[in-house]
């Protein structure tokens, strides 16, 4: 692994983290959608992109930094109690689907599965910590909101992966060649493959 490629990969992770954090803070400046605390979760786009073009570890770093710093910046550190477990499980779902099913299902479907998982788990964590099951009635609405959010994030990820020149991330991708097997990304007719 060459130093310049490693530095490029670190820079790409930093860029995705910064973009994710900015979108998180801006989105939190707007009032919630329909239900208290409900957001579209547009910052998840950058975690999803990291899962596809980098590694689950890179995506995990982006998620954790965004969750911790973002909630501190917006003055809501108590939300970490709900967002960290939900985010970790949703990230795991996305990583497994990308690893096992990327050639069978779309990036939009993966994004929807992740968003629905996140919302449902967050609601369950709230029920467990508060000792109240009253908010379980919100679960169907949160699942529907997750579908909407997942579609928006997934479509955005699709267009970015399809039309963003591979040169933007191919140096970072090349540093991972020895760590991945038989994964390819179709990028508007261009394919980046590992081993």
Short description:
By secondary structure, the chain is mostly helical.
Structural overview:
Helices cover 67% and strands 4% of the residues. The chain has 195 residues and is mainly alpha-helical. It has one domain (3-193): Orthogonal Bundle (Arp2/3 complex 21 kDa subunit ARPC3), CATH 1.10.1760.20. It has a two-stranded antiparallel sheet with strand order 1-2. The chain is globular. Mean pLDDT is 82; it is low at 178-195.
Topology:
Layout: H1 3-28, H2 44-53, H3 56-73, H4 80-101, H5 107-130, H6 139-163, H7 170-175, E1 184-187, E2 190-193
Antiparallel strand pairs: 1-2
Q: How many strands appear in the DSSP assignment?
A: 2
The dominant shape is globular
CATH architecture: Orthogonal Bundle
Structural class by SSE content: mainly alpha
Share of β-strand residues: under 5%
List its traits.
Arp2/3 complex 21 kDa subunit ARPC3, disordered C terminus, mainly alpha, 195 residues, two-stranded antiparallel ribbon
